[in-house]
Amino acid sequence: MKIQKTGTRLDPILESVAAHAIERRRARGGAPVADPDPVRGTRFVRALGTPGELSFIAECKRRSPSVGELTSEVDLGARAEAYARGGAAALSILTEQDHFRGHPDDLIAAAKAGLPRLRKDFLLDVDMVVETVAMGADAVLLLAVCLDDAQLRDMRAAARELGLAVLLEVHDEEELERGLRVDPDCLGVNARDLRTFEVDLGVTERLLPLVPPGIVRVAESGIHAAESALRMRRAGADAVLVGEALMKSGDPAATLRQWRAFVGEGQP
Ligand SMILES: O=C(O)c1ccccc1NCC(=O)[C@H](O)[C@H](O)COP(=O)(O)O
């Protein structure tokens, strides 16, 4: 498995992701296989593309490298259901094990909420795309920061063949240009620089308007208040992906409802 080293804080995460993927491959006894299903990806993309509305992708993550522990919850199913009650359009499930304390089984646990699910992880090769189908996800995250052009192309092609939607994540103009070349369903601008963990919503404001029409525009990270969600809407986001603020909320359903109402009232 090829890892694109960045020489930054991201590398230890990529190394442990690769180690777990190799372990799963060994346990499985070879490369994963999966059947195509054109419906799964379409369901994810449609959920985010409600015209005139900002959609919320609510994230389940137990821990983050930048903040530390976010919850002691074992079963994330109840949380996923609370997100659904709050009006989330889709779920983002962190499946990385060592730095976020996630697990592929979390995708299964979250299924009972009945929402489309994104596997949020640091996918490194085609096999990791293919194995996502058995985990029950509808979409995969591909990160321009840790994949070269050939990896992006091959992993995008595998996702398309299986009917998985692709959320392609970028943090600067060069990554945006490379990401757009593989024709993603959704383009996410992450306000967090994954190499330094620094967050700047100005990056999202700068890059989102450069995403061509027809691609769902997602603002990711650093959205800690309803005002920031509205700010992202004004920058052109079709959807926001929110993790930490919802994980820290005592009542995530109520928080989501409040934020959605606030953005609805503040839109032109
Ligand atoms: O969350 C982190 O600290 C982090 C560190 C290094 C790489 C990735 C990281 N997070 C992944 C994400 O992109 C976020 O979980 C997601 O966008 C939600 O962000 P937030 O609302 O700020 O929790």
UniProtKB/TrEMBL annotation:
GO terms for molecular function: indole-3-glycerol-phosphate synthase activity; phosphoribosylanthranilate isomerase activity. CDD domains: IGPS. It comes from the Bacteria. Residues 45-258 form the Indole-3-glycerol phosphate synthase domain. It catalyses: 1-(2-carboxyphenylamino)-1-deoxy-D-ribulose 5-phosphate + H(+) = (1S,2R)-1-C-(indol-3-yl)glycerol 3-phosphate + CO2 + H2O. InterPro entries: Aldolase_TIM, Indole-3-glycerol_P_synth, Indole-3-glycerol_P_synth_dom, Indole-3-GlycerolPSynthase_CS, RibuloseP-bd_barrel. Pathway: Amino-acid biosynthesis; L-tryptophan biosynthesis; L-tryptophan from chorismate: step 4/5. It holds the Pfam family IGPS. One of its GO terms (biological process) is L-tryptophan biosynthetic process. Keywords: Amino-acid biosynthesis, Aromatic amino acid biosynthesis, Decarboxylase, Lyase, Tryptophan biosynthesis. Its EC number is 4.1.1.48. This is indole-3-glycerol-phosphate synthase. The gene is trpC.
